[in-house]
Amino acid sequence: MQKITTSRRGFMQLSATSAAFLAAGASFASLTGCTKAPVASGYKVLRNTDFEFITAIAPVVLGGSYPGVLGPEKAPEVLLKAVDNLVVTLQEYAQSQLIMMFDVMQSAPLRVAMDAPWSTWPEATAEDIERFLQGWKTSMIPLKRMGYGSLVKVLAMCWYSQPETFISSGYPGMPKRELLTDQPIAAAD
Q1: Is 163 among the domain residues?
Q2: Which domain holds residue 89?
Q3: Is the pTM higher than 0.85?
Q4: How many domains does the chain contain in total?
Q5: What is the pLDDT, as a whole number, of residue 6?
Q6: Does the residue 178 lie in any domain?
Q7: Local structure of 116: helix, strand or coil
Q8: Which of 88, 120, 125, 172 could anchor a disulfide with 44, C-beta 3.0 to 4.6 Å?
Q9: 3-class DSSP assignment, residue 120
Q10: Count of alpha carbons within 13 Å of 11, Cβ hemisphere only?
Q11: Cβ atoms within 10 A of the Cβ of 65, count?
Q12: How many whole angstroms separate alpha carbon 134 and alpha carbon 113?
Protein backbone atom coordinates (compact mmCIF):
# COMPACT_ATOMS: atom_id res chain seq x y z
CA MET A 1 0.00 0.00 0.00
CA GLN A 2 1.24 3.44 -0.87
CA LYS A 3 1.95 5.70 2.09
CA ILE A 4 0.50 9.16 1.75
CA THR A 5 2.12 12.02 3.61
CA THR A 6 0.35 15.32 3.74
CA SER A 7 1.37 18.68 5.11
CA ARG A 8 -1.00 20.73 7.19
CA ARG A 9 -1.65 22.99 4.20
CA GLY A 10 -2.32 19.97 1.97
CA PHE A 11 -4.71 18.54 4.53
CA MET A 12 -6.60 21.85 4.73
CA GLN A 13 -6.83 22.02 0.93
CA LEU A 14 -8.10 18.45 0.77
CA SER A 15 -10.66 19.14 3.49
CA ALA A 16 -11.90 22.29 1.75
CA THR A 17 -12.11 20.50 -1.60
CA SER A 18 -14.00 17.56 -0.10
CA ALA A 19 -16.44 19.86 1.69
CA ALA A 20 -17.00 21.85 -1.51
CA PHE A 21 -17.59 18.67 -3.49
CA LEU A 22 -20.13 17.37 -0.95
CA ALA A 23 -21.88 20.75 -0.83
CA ALA A 24 -22.04 20.90 -4.64
CA GLY A 25 -23.34 17.34 -4.77
CA ALA A 26 -25.98 18.02 -2.15
CA SER A 27 -27.03 21.20 -3.97
CA PHE A 28 -27.33 19.32 -7.23
CA ALA A 29 -29.28 16.56 -5.49
CA SER A 30 -31.68 19.08 -3.95
CA LEU A 31 -32.18 20.77 -7.32
CA THR A 32 -33.08 17.44 -8.93
CA GLY A 33 -35.59 16.71 -6.17
CA CYS A 34 -33.69 13.89 -4.44
CA THR A 35 -33.89 15.43 -0.99
CA LYS A 36 -37.53 16.40 -1.38
CA ALA A 37 -38.63 12.77 -1.23
CA PRO A 38 -40.76 12.21 1.85
CA VAL A 39 -39.85 9.71 4.54
CA ALA A 40 -41.31 6.31 3.68
CA SER A 41 -44.42 5.20 5.49
CA GLY A 42 -43.57 3.41 8.73
CA TYR A 43 -40.00 4.77 8.80
CA LYS A 44 -38.41 7.64 10.72
CA VAL A 45 -35.64 8.76 8.33
CA LEU A 46 -35.29 6.54 5.26
CA ARG A 47 -37.04 7.28 1.99
CA ASN A 48 -38.10 4.88 -0.76
CA THR A 49 -35.09 5.93 -2.85
CA ASP A 50 -32.79 4.98 0.04
CA PHE A 51 -34.36 1.51 0.04
CA GLU A 52 -33.14 0.93 -3.53
CA PHE A 53 -29.55 1.80 -2.67
CA ILE A 54 -29.40 -0.16 0.58
CA THR A 55 -31.08 -3.29 -0.79
CA ALA A 56 -28.82 -3.23 -3.87
CA ILE A 57 -25.55 -3.07 -1.94
CA ALA A 58 -26.57 -5.30 1.00
CA PRO A 59 -25.99 -8.66 -0.76
CA VAL A 60 -22.50 -7.55 -1.84
CA VAL A 61 -21.51 -6.08 1.53
CA LEU A 62 -22.99 -8.87 3.65
CA GLY A 63 -22.06 -11.72 1.32
CA GLY A 64 -23.36 -15.19 2.06
CA SER A 65 -25.07 -14.22 5.30
CA TYR A 66 -27.69 -12.18 3.41
CA PRO A 67 -30.60 -12.96 3.17
CA GLY A 68 -29.81 -15.97 5.34
CA VAL A 69 -32.54 -17.66 7.30
CA LEU A 70 -34.84 -14.67 6.90
CA GLY A 71 -35.17 -15.32 3.19
CA PRO A 72 -35.38 -12.83 0.31
CA GLU A 73 -38.89 -11.69 1.27
CA LYS A 74 -38.27 -10.75 4.91
CA ALA A 75 -34.55 -9.85 4.97
CA PRO A 76 -34.78 -6.47 3.17
CA GLU A 77 -37.49 -5.19 5.51
CA VAL A 78 -35.62 -6.34 8.63
CA LEU A 79 -32.41 -4.69 7.40
CA LEU A 80 -34.12 -1.45 6.36
CA LYS A 81 -35.94 -1.13 9.70
CA ALA A 82 -32.64 -1.73 11.55
CA VAL A 83 -30.82 0.87 9.41
CA ASP A 84 -33.65 3.36 9.96
CA ASN A 85 -33.54 2.78 13.73
CA LEU A 86 -29.75 3.24 13.76
CA VAL A 87 -29.71 6.38 11.60
CA VAL A 88 -32.36 8.07 13.74
CA THR A 89 -30.12 7.62 16.82
CA LEU A 90 -27.08 9.26 15.21
CA GLN A 91 -26.16 12.79 16.20
CA GLU A 92 -27.58 15.39 13.83
CA TYR A 93 -24.35 16.00 11.89
CA ALA A 94 -23.61 12.30 11.29
CA GLN A 95 -27.22 11.68 10.32
CA SER A 96 -27.20 14.56 7.81
CA GLN A 97 -23.92 13.34 6.25
CA LEU A 98 -25.29 9.82 5.80
CA ILE A 99 -28.53 11.12 4.29
CA MET A 100 -26.45 13.37 2.02
CA MET A 101 -24.52 10.31 0.82
CA PHE A 102 -27.82 8.55 0.10
CA ASP A 103 -28.93 11.64 -1.87
CA VAL A 104 -25.75 11.63 -3.97
CA MET A 105 -26.28 7.95 -4.79
CA GLN A 106 -29.70 8.75 -6.30
CA SER A 107 -28.48 11.13 -9.01
CA ALA A 108 -26.91 9.39 -12.02
CA PRO A 109 -24.41 12.20 -12.82
CA LEU A 110 -23.29 12.36 -9.18
CA ARG A 111 -23.09 8.56 -8.98
CA VAL A 112 -20.75 8.54 -11.96
CA ALA A 113 -18.67 11.35 -10.47
CA MET A 114 -18.31 9.20 -7.35
CA ASP A 115 -17.34 6.12 -9.42
CA ALA A 116 -20.68 4.41 -8.86
CA PRO A 117 -22.69 2.71 -11.63
CA TRP A 118 -24.62 4.92 -14.04
CA SER A 119 -27.60 2.56 -13.97
CA THR A 120 -30.16 2.76 -11.20
CA TRP A 121 -29.29 0.69 -8.13
CA PRO A 122 -31.90 -2.02 -8.77
CA GLU A 123 -30.43 -2.46 -12.28
CA ALA A 124 -26.78 -2.55 -11.13
CA THR A 125 -25.09 -5.94 -11.22
CA ALA A 126 -23.27 -7.44 -8.24
CA GLU A 127 -20.01 -6.94 -10.20
CA ASP A 128 -20.77 -3.24 -10.72
CA ILE A 129 -21.52 -2.80 -7.02
CA GLU A 130 -18.39 -4.74 -6.00
CA ARG A 131 -16.26 -2.58 -8.31
CA PHE A 132 -17.84 0.57 -6.85
CA LEU A 133 -17.26 -0.55 -3.25
CA GLN A 134 -13.66 -1.66 -3.91
CA GLY A 135 -12.99 1.65 -5.65
CA TRP A 136 -14.17 3.53 -2.58
CA LYS A 137 -12.31 1.22 -0.19
CA THR A 138 -8.96 1.71 -1.96
CA SER A 139 -9.44 5.31 -3.11
CA MET A 140 -6.74 7.92 -2.56
CA ILE A 141 -9.58 10.29 -1.63
CA PRO A 142 -10.29 10.14 2.12
CA LEU A 143 -13.95 11.12 1.60
CA LYS A 144 -14.58 7.96 -0.43
CA ARG A 145 -12.78 5.74 2.07
CA MET A 146 -14.85 7.25 4.89
CA GLY A 147 -18.02 6.70 2.85
CA TYR A 148 -17.06 3.07 2.28
CA GLY A 149 -16.35 2.55 5.97
CA SER A 150 -19.63 4.15 6.98
CA LEU A 151 -21.71 2.09 4.56
CA VAL A 152 -20.10 -1.21 5.49
CA LYS A 153 -20.23 -0.57 9.23
CA VAL A 154 -23.85 0.58 9.21
CA LEU A 155 -25.00 -2.42 7.18
CA ALA A 156 -22.94 -4.94 9.14
CA MET A 157 -24.01 -3.55 12.53
CA CYS A 158 -27.66 -3.50 11.55
CA TRP A 159 -27.63 -6.96 9.99
CA TYR A 160 -25.62 -8.84 12.59
CA SER A 161 -27.52 -7.27 15.49
CA GLN A 162 -30.64 -9.19 14.45
CA PRO A 163 -31.22 -12.38 16.51
CA GLU A 164 -32.07 -14.29 13.32
CA THR A 165 -28.57 -13.65 11.96
CA PHE A 166 -26.61 -14.73 15.03
CA ILE A 167 -26.12 -18.25 13.66
CA SER A 168 -24.53 -16.98 10.42
CA SER A 169 -21.81 -15.21 12.39
CA GLY A 170 -21.24 -18.04 14.84
CA TYR A 171 -22.62 -15.98 17.74
CA PRO A 172 -24.63 -18.27 20.03
CA GLY A 173 -26.78 -15.42 21.30
CA MET A 174 -27.08 -13.66 24.61
CA PRO A 175 -25.87 -15.65 27.60
CA LYS A 176 -28.68 -17.23 29.56
CA ARG A 177 -28.82 -16.23 33.19
CA GLU A 178 -29.88 -18.95 35.54
CA LEU A 179 -31.54 -18.04 38.79
CA LEU A 180 -30.60 -20.03 41.86
CA THR A 181 -33.91 -20.90 43.48
CA ASP A 182 -32.51 -22.49 46.62
CA GLN A 183 -30.60 -19.35 47.66
CA PRO A 184 -32.49 -16.78 49.75
CA ILE A 185 -32.42 -13.23 48.46
CA ALA A 186 -30.86 -10.86 50.96
CA ALA A 187 -33.07 -8.01 52.01
CA ALA A 188 -31.75 -4.50 51.55
CA ASP A 189 -31.48 -2.41 54.70
Answers
A1: yes
A2: 22-167
A3: no
A4: 1
A5: 60
A6: no
A7: coil
A8: 88
A9: coil
A10: 5
A11: 17
A12: 15
